Amino acid sequence: MKKQTLFAILFCLFVYIGHSQEPLKIACVGNSITYGSGVVNREMNAYPQQLQHLLGDKFLVKNYGVSGRTLLKKGDYPYWETNEYMEALEFNPDIVFIKLGTNDSKLQNRIHLEEFESNYKELINSFKRQNENARIILLLPVPAFTKDTTSIWDKPIKNKIIPITQKVAYKTNVEVLDLYHLFLDRSNLLPDGVHPSGLGATVIAKRLYEAIVQKESQAIDFSIKNEFSEVSNGNFYGYNLTNFKFNQVDCKVVVPKKPAIGKPWVLRARFWGHEPQTDIALLERGFHIAYCDVANLYGNKQAVKRWNKFYKLMTNAGLSKKVVLEGMSRGGLIVYNWAVKNSEKVAGIYADAPVLDGKSWPKKRSNVDWEKFKKAYGLKNHSDVDTFKGNPIHKINQIAKAGFPMLHVVGEADKVVPISENTVPFENGIKTSGGNIKVIYKPNNGHHPHSLKNPTPIVDFILRATGQKVNFAVVPSPSAEFRSAAGWVKGKGWWAQANDIDSLCQNSGKVDLLLMGNSITQGWGGNRPNVTHYPGKKAVETYFEDLKIVGAGISGDRTQHILWRLQNGNYEKANPTIVVLAIGVNNFGDNTASEIVVGIKNVMHLAREKFKSKTKILLLGPLPTGIDPKSDRRKKYNDIHKALSNLKMPNNVSYHNLISLFTDDKGFLKEEYYSGDGIHLKPEGYNVWGKYLREIIK
Question: How many whole angstroms separate alpha carbon 308 and alpha carbon 288?
Fold first, then answer.
């Protein structure tokens, strides 16, 4: 009997372990954008397939997109009638991404939009009936840059379809991801105005990846706090909004569907709900968004005390002890004045066209507000005004020493809160005092509109300030790069280049030199059948003529692409004597210096695993870049190489910084070596690089 019981337990354990190892199933339901219409090499580059590559074999992603289909049952081509819909249900997915609505904006379909909400709820319920625990995530349509108002049209997408989708998400308590704002400033990624390219699909895949890997913490129910009065709930773009009074002051909290680990939050000052795209994006990522009214107090002591009490209320409820402060316009006064008194509680500050000096605004530009300002601070005469030092502009040293990061977004043509009287002197003072501030200047932009069409730079700043940012520099993934400017044979994309390199590594026999990197490395050449641009050809003939080399550079590659190629390729078959790793410059736009360094370290360690210990690895990181030694690009380059130089290198790895070879005595990149972008080498530059490598090889 005991043996039978033991056998039963072991059998159940075996079944459980076997089941737990099954991949998590993800269904991508949608129209032509999900299918991959317009994407070169759709089978590899449509966003569901890119998501599969990002997630790896612990997940199984299926593409159930069908071109031209509507969510509306009365649409011209309803998704409901497709085989793919039935297959998606039979797949019984654990996670369902639904991206429908674009075709519903056509004239013949939008006349039925009154049924969009009920049809969407029915679609969600059909997957819930298959698996009640299924995680349903609605994807807002991307914008349409078309001009034919009878076809797919942006106006109904923005003003009708998206609000209804957010309403559905609120009523059904499912998640929603805003893809719309991610493309508003990226029309180049939608070549026909509707369908994202392969690189556009990468944007979608990465956003979906973030949603899947985001860890969740326990939710907080703000609606039952004893300290609250006049409590009511509402819909904030698909999320639950709690309105309440605290000490007779109007307050608000919006709760995410899945609170992030650590329960990060934003305390917003003034103008609730104005330009909400940043707040919405943060809610998607598990942030709480809170508000405590300090109107007509202009950041004075009373306002600071009010926020002190509200902060205590929120943190006692369970939110993070460090808060992100968000201040638009006059909200700049309270966020900085509160931060000065509570610097240890501040994770970071996002200030948008902020007022930093009351003598700029309201004194010079609003008589009514200036009178209120004086009353708030007890300024009774000219002497009080002249000696007043209660503005953020007067507290620069204290703010800089606090050490928290700051981001300002300002219009260069702002006449209401001129940057010359506010952000510019503030930025200069913070930097002089060693503080951490970045400013995004918007040309031809006045005081309005606030924020950015695509809030990604703001969102990324806040994610990094709170330790929530996914570092894609270390997530192995293939590229969806496809462009003639890459120096490739027409019609041959990234996958053709990757396959060519893999074939060379497998069939070339033992190789003396394996050159790995991006377009700069690709420029060496090396028997690549689908590469057309070889600025380093003469240098190869001069310095590597007696060596067998494989040029393994691919235009556009970043650290994550090299990681994927090393993981999935057969580069070790080349048994190289020397491997040169020159990578990282294409990460500059998306990643910080520290993120890039981690990516380069991962490449180096993976290369050591793949190749035999006798292989020598020359770690170059990014090659010298940034024409001006004082440019942001050069600063990032220097920061990366400073960190790399401090790494303890394994025995078979040597680190090399080539900056002295390519710069003049004033630190500028030499024009004879570089093209105008300060990134790509001319033939003369390859000659310098080739000579250096030849000396190392000797």
Answer: 18
* Amino acid 481: pLDDT: 87
Instruction: Spell out the residues 6+ positions from residue 103 whose beta carbon is closer than 8 angstroms to its own.
Output: 31, 68, 69, 70, 75, 76, 77, 109, 152
Q: At what angle do helices 301-317 and 331-341 cross, to 10 degrees?
A: 70
Global pTM value: 0.94
| HEC assignment per residue over 305-336 | HHHHHHHHHHHHHCCCCCEEEEEECCHHHHHH
Q: How many helices (H) and strands (E) does the chain have?
A: 27, 19
Helix (H) or strand (E) holding 64: strand 59-65
- Our measurement of the distance from residue 598's CA atom to the centroid of its chain's CA atoms, rounded to an integer in Å, reads 17
Please name the amino acid found at residue 656: H
Are 520 and 531 in contact, with CB atoms under 8 Å apart?
no
User: If we measure between CA atoms, which residue out of 61, 105, 257, 69 comes closest to residue 176?
Assistant: 257
Cα 172 off chain centre by: 27
What DSSP string runs through 96-136? EEEE--SGGGSHHHHTTGGGHHHHHHHHHHHHHHH-TT-EE
Euclidean distance between CA atoms 242 and 299, whole angstroms: 24
**Radius of gyration of the chain from its Cα atoms, rounded to whole angstroms:** 28
* Calpha distance 54→203 (Å, rounded): 12
Residue 224 confidence (pLDDT): 65
Find the helix packing angle between 116-130 and 162-172, rounded to 10°.
40
CB distance 134 to 95 below 8 Å: yes
- List the Cα angle 289/294/300 in 5-degree steps: 125
Q: Which helix (H) or strand (E) holds 243?
A: strand 239-246
Classify residue 539 as exposed, middle or buried by CB count within 10 Å of its CB (0-12, 13-18, 19+): buried
Task: Say how far apart CA 405 and CA 438 lie, in whole Å.
Answer: 8
Q: Which residue has the tokens 């997109």?
A: 65
Per-residue CA distances from 695 to 543, 641, 688 (Å): 9, 21, 11
Give the pLDDT confidence score for residue 4 in this predicted structure: 45
Q: What is the predicted pLDDT for the residue at 19?
A: 46
CA 518 – CA 625 distance, rounded (Å): 14
* Separation between Cα atoms, residue 239 and residue 266, nearest integer Å: 15
Cα-Cα-Cα-Cα torsion 454, 457, 463, 467, nearest 10 degrees, comes to 160
Tokens of 657: 């910084």
Walking along the chain (698 residues) 10 residues at a time, the average pLDDT comes out as: 42 42 95 96 97 97 98 98 98 98 98 98 97 97 97 98 98 98 97 97 98 94 76 95 94 97 96 97 98 97 98 96 98 98 98 97 96 96 95 98 98 98 98 97 97 98 98 97 85 95 96 97 92 95 95 97 97 97 97 98 96 93 97 97 96 96 97 95 98 92
Torsion sign across C-alpha atoms 530, 535, 536, 538: positive
Of the candidates 574, 667, 654, 589, the one whose C-alpha atom is nearest the C-alpha of residue 624 is 667
Count of CA atoms in the C-beta half-sphere (13 A) of 96: 29
Residue 329 has, within 13 A of its CA and on its CB side, a CA count of 16
